[in-house]
Amino acid sequence: MDLRLFYRKIREVEAAIEGAYPIVVSLATPDGGIAGVLSEVSRAAAARQIVEGKVRLANETERRAFLEQFENARRIAERAKFVNRMQIAVFSGNEADEAEPKLDADDVAEESDGE
């Protein structure tokens, strides 16, 4: 293969791609590539893989479905992050005294026996 021709084709394909991060769909390849996997990649990576015959640009329907799925995954991750966020309560001096457990006479007797 003529390397000059190869890289010229990559530059031509890259110039024709719209947007900085196009969505591509993988094609089945002899080295085990799985067809139908959608990915968002840089223009340079997309152009190279298109010329190599490993991917094709996603059509509008595939692109919308990919972005919708990505947005749903982002929302789920945001919710999980919010749920796992540590919650801290701030008490003033009076509220902290009220929040302490009250000991009755039996508890005081048990504490003095342990000493």
How would you portray this structure in words?
- This protein is mostly helical and 115 residues long.
- The protein has one domain.
- 57% of the residues lie in helices and 9% in strands.
- The chain contains five helices and three strands.
- It has a three-stranded antiparallel beta sheet.
- The longest helix is centred in the middle third of the chain and has 25 residues, at 60-84.
- The radius of gyration is 30 Å and the shape is elongated.
- The termini are far apart.
- The mean pLDDT is 83.
List keywords for this structure.
elongated; three-stranded antiparallel beta sheet; 5 helices; mainly alpha; 57% helix; 9% strand; 3 strands; 115 residues
Total number of strands:
3
Count the helices. How many?
5
In what range is the share of β-strand residues? 5-15%
Order of helices and strands: HEEHEHHH
Spans where pLDDT lies below 50 across 5 or more residues = none
Strand order, sheet with most strands: 2-1-3
Tally the structural domains. 1
Overall mean pLDDT stands at 83
Largest sheet: 3 strands, antiparallel
SS-derived structural category: mainly alpha
**How many angstroms does the end-to-end distance come to?**
88 Å
